[in-house]
Amino acid sequence: MTDAQEATGGEDALALREMSATLWRWKLEPWPEIAETARSAGPIMQDRLVANRLWESLPASEQAAVHWAMTSGHELAGLTEARLDYEREGVSIRRLADHLRHVADLCDGWKHGKRAKDARYAEEIGRSLAALPDGWRGEAVRRIMTGEDVPSTLADATRGINILRNVYGIDTGKP
Prior knowledge:
The chain is mostly helical and 175 residues long. It folds into 2 domains: 3-111; 118-168, no CATH class. It is built from 7 helices and no strands. The protein is elongated. The chain starts with a helix and ends in a 7-residue tail after the last helix.
């Protein structure tokens, strides 16, 4: 990163953190300001990541998270103050504020925070689930949804597929 890009990254990070702070104060600020901040958050995050030459190096799940934030912000901006469900929209606003802070960290050159680690783990889980045959993938997701541990569930599925193949001669189609 050049000195000019580094300076821009710092300025971008500051602007993104200010947007995050505005969203965190969502119950105290006028709703039109919150709605506008929410609406512009996703496009600004993507623009700043592209401008700082970070977008292409992000995992697909991180890019999807920015796009998801874009759609969440759009939906929030379409609400009137009278239609707010404070519990539901509060979760969305906090998630958007957290994501703005994460993108600010990326623009500042910080790539090792909890969210980055979570994104790498999510990519790994996604690859592991994709490697399972359809029926096994569905059963693994069902077990995870009922509270079973993700790594154990995936390991059990892989082991089970191998046992079926090696002991019983049943080919499930993958691993």
